[in-house]
Structures are given as structure tokens and as C-alpha cells.
Amino acid sequence: MPITGVKMRCQIANSIFIDITILCLIISVTKISPLSNFYLKINKLITMKPTPNPSENKTPSKNNKSVDNTKLLDIVSIFPDLPGVYLMKDIGGIVIYVGKAKNLKKRVKSYFLKGRDTRPTVAFLLPRIADIDFVVTKNEKEALILENTLIKKHKPKYNINLKDDKSYFSIKLTVKNAFPRMILTRKVKKDGSVYLGPYTSSASARETIEIIRDIFLIRTCSDSTLRNRSRACLNYQIKKCSAPCVGNINKADYKKSIEGVKMFLNGDVNGLIRSLKREMKAESFSENFEVAARIRDQINAINVTVEKQRAVTHKSSMNNDIIGAYREGAGVSINVINVRGGTIIGIKSHVFLDSALDAQEALLSFIKQYYHGDKEIPREIVVSEKLADLVLIKDWLSEKRESAVNIKVPKRGDSRRIMEMALENAKQSLLNKLKLQIDIENELTQIKEKLHLSRMPEVIECYDISNLMGKEAVGSKVVMQNGALNKDNYRRYKIRTRSESDDFGMMYEVLKRRFSRHDYMPDLIVIDGGKGHLGIALRVMEELKITTVDVVSLAKEKRVKSELKDERVYLPGRKNPVVISSLGSAFNMLIRLRDEAHRFAITYHKNLRSKKLTGSIFDGIKGIGPKKRELILSSITSLDDITAEKLGEVKGLSKGDVATIINYFTL
Question: What is the number of helices (H) and of strands (E) in the chain?
Fold first, then answer.
């Protein structure tokens, strides 16, 4: 193989974060003719931009077109008989579906052969496919991992796309320390610590930590506090810590407490109580009655806690995740119930609307993404549907957990009862989401009709200006998509062209900067202001020849000559505004969006003002960072001290730094 070929594939590996040696190996065994076509397809895949935010694609009718199946079969004909991942794209080049295959050619070809693949997903996807790309992997397990990575990158419309969830908490035990501590954390790392959870709310996690402190007296203070204390803190006085900082407990006894915490949180309560009872008897036999009494109280506290929490099952050893999928119409809802030690510690539903996948496919895709990161994997996962690729998924999860993982569909008992609860929760979550969607569609329809808009306002952008007498002037853009705030598309603008108080000029600058970019177009622009602000927005649209976006302005209520004027909407081509109270409750959506734009702008403005008030005259000097500024300010007392001689005496400043500072103030 030519050297250039190896270099090309290694660059591919860097781009998609796959091991270079693996991909270089793949080249040596891949037999594709012509080879240049193979490289061409891979290069197209890697250089392809991530699929934009749904709000950025405003041409759905175009993208629903497809090419002839014969052309797609010609594309598939160059696919290798190897494992890998395929990416289906619409006519706009946007990835709409990502899948994995044990044999790329056979798997993708089956989509286009009648009777070979009867899944509803296939019939739904075929009219929308215009092109297909692929990437080869060493084996099917690597294909599974790459599939998840590409779904995260491209966010395909017809895959289940589980957002990174930062709301799960774990209790971290730093067991590598001589006296381990408990920490509440969202991140699970392979750092030798023990992580217990997950907990879907910080409140439940903190409550568990308090219970552990009451029973086992485990420290929560930092390592530096532990090292530097000379006397026990208040936690020791109120019996929430055993005070290892001052030697009140030795390492062996503290380690026993840590083992007890792990047994307690892992659900082995019976084993823990048996162990404590043996210890209590041994202490009684040695006539250490005070220690024995303390262990007795510990046992009683554990029993009381377990009885309060055991609302799920009588099996205190039950540690599993129960995942149920429910589908209705075009929506899929997946509910996850986390059970640890026979107690439910977390319940959460994930709803996906407009999904092309059936319940079984959605469940499989969800599981691959749910456990893709650092989330704790229990020894058993209970699912509502029999999974395809079951052996592959079990092997992958077992490898991640570093011990065997079982996946089963429950037939009877506690697992079946909790699964019914999960399915009911999934159903209710989906129905609530569908009802909310209908309500939002009705409100958007009212806004369209009453403001005489040219299109349904699915994506709305709102702009506001904030300044104080022209100083620290900023603009804000907030976005609402289908009735929900889309914070990923929020933007802040620092005003560049105006130094005096000129609201119209500042709004002109913000809108010109925003719409001069070749970016997605919203359906509706809302300007925080009156008729003059509307005129500025219309002027920008005219200058940039934008004719497909509706524009309105929304003025706040105000008092004029003792008369309170309601919120008003100014429309193009209409002299008098429309009083918003006459338009119905749907317009609360616009008021909420306008208030959010105001909050976002004024927060940025206040931050800039705060920085300016707490800054120094050295802040703007390039190459002089916070540490050097601190050295300068601690050494000089007045502007007269800003001389080459005085600055040269400041330790930490080089001759170049001194020259830079002198030039800054001289020029």
C-alpha cells in the first residue's frame, strides 16, 4: 500500500477519534475497487460538518426529496463486507440517520431490497435518503462505540438522541485516602474512588449522605482541613463525624466504617447487620460495653432507615436499572428507574417526539447512549423489550463495568411490578408532552393569525439593548423554538459603533451583525421597543434583502399622564399598535421571550460594569496578566511610580514587560 494511503487513513483516525493502528490495519485488509472511491467516501464523511441545530434547517420540504433507489444501490455497491457505521443523508447533505452493521454492504443493501427489511423505520426513511456514507471499524463492538459518537456529533433527526444529562449525582468515597471522605459529584472518573448511585436529585443524594454521617460518622471535610485541624470541629460535637483529624479513631476502625457504608449503599444490609452483631458480641465479651452500646445504636439506626426507605421490594440486594419503552403515534417515551439496595433512588422519563423508531429500536438506541459515558452500570438491567444484538450489548457493558452484566425481560415478581410502573410513567410522560405540544401549536397558530404573519412562528428571535448613558452598551439575542427557550442559540453583542446613548443605532448594529451572517433564518423577529425600533429592524431587513422573516416590536406597559398603557405590539404597515391584552393568553409566550431577552442583556451589561469598576489601569495591557498586575499594584502607590526604574524593581517583571507598560502609557 502507498505511504500516502496510510497517512490519509491516520488523519481520518485523528478526525473521528478512533485508534490509528486499528484503522491503518483495516486498510491493509480492505479490498475495495477502485480504492480511490473508498477514500473519497471516507474523506467526505470526516470533512462533513456536524448536522446543524434543527432550528437552523428551515427547508424541510427540500430535504424530504430523495434520489432514485438505483443510484443509492450504486453507492452501496462500493461498500466493503466489513463491520462499520453508515450515515444516511438527505438532499441537503444533513445526516438524518446513523446505524451500525456487522457487514456494511449486506446491511445497507437490505434497506433497498423489497421484503428484506420490513421495519416501519425503513419505509419511513427511504423517501428521505439522498446519499449514504460509511466508515469501517475493526469489529462490531467498535462500530457500536463509533455509532454513539457520530450520533452525538451529528444529532440525526431520526435517531434517538439522548442529550448529555448532568443532573445525575453520585456519592464518591475517596477510598485511596487513609481516612476516606464523602463527596457529592456529577462526574464519575476512574480514579480509584468508589462511586455509589446514581441519584436523580441532589436532595435525595444529600439526604443519603446525612443518613450515612449519622450512622457511620464519615468525614466530609477537605483533605487540607483534615491535615491542618488541631481540634475536632462541630460535626464531631453533634455526632456526625468520628474526628480522624485529631486521632479520635484509628485507620482500621475507620476502614470498617467505610466498608459498612459500601455494604449499606450497595444493598447488603443483612450482611452489614450480621457483621455488626458479631462485632457487638465480641465487644460485650471483652466488657467494652460502651463500644457495644454504640454498635447496638448503629444497628437500630440502620433498621429504622431501611424500613423507611424500603417502599419497593423486600429484596434488599436488588440493584438494577429498570428501563421501559412506550410508543404512541410518532412519539417514544423511555422511563428509567434506578433501584439500589431494594430502594428506588431515581426515576426519570426521556421523551422523543417525531421518532422513526419503534419501541424495541428506540430502547436499544437509548441503552447504547445512556451507558456510553461514565454512568454507573448495575449488575442487572431489566428491559421492557427483547433487544437485538443482545450478546454484543452485554459484552460491551460487561467490559465497561469490569464484571458480568445481565439483561433480561421480567416475567414475574418485583422486577415485573416495577417495570409496569416504569411503563406507566413512560406513557404519562409521553401523553403530557404530546398535550403540551398541541397546546403550543394552538398558541403559535393564534399568534400567526392575530398578527397576520406570513408563516408559522416556530423559531422566534427576540432582541434587546442594555446600557447606562451609552456606557458598557450590549445587545442580546434569545431564541424560542416551538414554544421552548433554546439557550444554545443565545448570543450577546458588545456594541462597537456607538459610545453615546443611541438605542436605535445600537439596535441597528446588532441586527446588521446578526443577519449579515449566512446563518439560519427565524420565522419571526421580536424587537423589545416601540415603533421606532420596528422601523430600524425593517430597514436592516430591506438593506440585506431579507423578505422571508416577519418582524414585530413589543413595547412594555407604561404610564402616560396618569394613564397606564398596556403592553403593545407594533406591526409593519399599521399606524396604531395592537394592545396585547386583547390578543389572548397565547401572547404571554411573547412577553416571556421579551423578558428573557431583557434579563440576558442586563446581566451581561452588569457583568461588564462590575469588571470595569473592579479593574485597574493595567487591565488593557497585552501580555500583562492577573498575576503580573497584582505584583505591579502591590509595588507602586501612584501614577508617578510608573517609570522604567520603579517597574524594573518589581520582581517577576521582565525587561520586555517593563517596556510594554511604558509604551502603553506613553502612547
Answer: 23, 21
CA 523 – CA 526 distance, rounded (Å): 10
- For the entire predicted model, the pTM comes to 0.62
pLDDT band at 242 (very low <50, low <70, confident <90, very high): confident
Pair 150, 273 in one domain: no
The secondary structure of the chain in percent helix, strand, coil, rounded to multiples of 5, reads: 50, 20, 35
Task: Compute the average pLDDT of residues 361-387.
Answer: 87
Mean pLDDT of the chain: 79
The pLDDT, as a whole number, for residue 319 is 81
Domain tally, the chain: 5
Side chain identity at residue 643, one-letter code: T
Which residues, listed in sequence order, are joined to residue 95 by a DSSP beta bridge? 89
- Looking at the DSSP bridge assignments, the partners of residue 496 are none
- Tell me if 452 is assigned to some domain: no
First to last CA, the chain: 61
Residues 261 and 206 in one domain: yes
Rounded Cα–Cα distance for residues 108 and 132 (Å): 9
Q: Is 260 a member of any domain?
A: yes
Q: For the segment 293-340, what is each residue's pLDDT rounded down to a tens digit? A: 878 887 887 777 665 554 444 455 678 899 999 988 778 999 998 887
Q: Note the residue count of the chain.
A: 667
pLDDT at 6: 31
Note whether 495 and 539 are same-domain residues: yes
**Last residue in a domain, options 246, 277, 309:** 309
Can you read off the three cell numbers belonging to residue 182?
464523602
DSSP 116-175: T---HHHHHHGGG--EEEEEE-SSHHHHHHHHHHHHHHH--TTS--PPP----EEEEE-T
Is 192 inside a domain boundary? yes
Range of the domain at 233: 169-309
299 and 213 co-located in one domain: yes
Strand partners, 334: 325, 350
- Three-state DSSP at 494 gives strand
pLDDT at 417 over 90: no
User: If residue 472 lies in a helix (H) or strand (E), which one and from where to where?
Assistant: strand 471-481
